[in-house]
Amino acid sequence: MGETIFSKIIRKEIPAKIVYENEDVLAFRDINPQAPVHILVIPKKLEIENTTQIKGSEHAELLGKLFDAVNEIARAEGISEKGFRVVINSGPESGQDVLHLHLHILGGRKMHWPPG
Ligand code: 5GP
Questions:
Q1: Which residues contact 64 (CB under 8 A, 6 or more apart)?
Q2: Atom of ligand 1 lying closest to residue 38 CA
Q3: What pLDDT, in 10s, does the model give residues 36-61?
Q4: Centroid of ligand 1 to alpha carbon of 30 (angstroms)
């Protein structure tokens, strides 16, 4: 995986509105929010571009940590009870722009389906 804008956010070289951080996971508000709550949750050390490179045998613990973060953030943002959406764009046709695995948390409004 090459350098991305998220690498710079992890190294604090460019600013971001960080809402959660530990040794393995960083979460910050999306710069172009698509819902009242729109937060990106990313692994800090894992160098993979998207879900196509996930291996259960290697990444199970990290995936658990990412979802622990999702749930803690959702509770802190007050969207846990009403519900929220977690999106992972993976590859060109999905609309993925940043090639660093990331989970979108979207909430604070009624979501539509199909997602388009
Ligand atoms: P993707 O389309 O790759 O799934 O999502 C990338 C997301 O990163 C987009 O929602 C976009 O708004 C967000 N984004 C891109 N550059 C930046 C940035 O510099 N700062 C923040 N906070 N979000 C960014």
A1: none
A2: 10
A3: 999 999 999 977 999 999 999 999 99
A4: 6
Residue 13 φ/ψ region, left for φ over 0, alpha for ψ in the -120 to 50 degree band, beta for the rest: alpha
The residue with tokens 């009870």 is 81
Token readout for 23 is 């040794």
Q: Which of 38, 59, 100, 102 is catalytic?
A: 102
* Report field, pTM of the whole predicted structure over 0.90: yes
Which residues are within 8 A (CB) of 60 and not within 5 positions of it... i.e. 6 or more apart? none
CATH of the structural domain 5-107, one choice from 3.40.1010.10, 3.30.428.10, 3.40.47.10, 1.10.8.60 = 3.30.428.10
For a mutational test of ligand 1's pocket, the pick from 51, 90, 97, 106, i.e. the residue with the most ligand atoms closer than 8 A to its C-beta, is 97
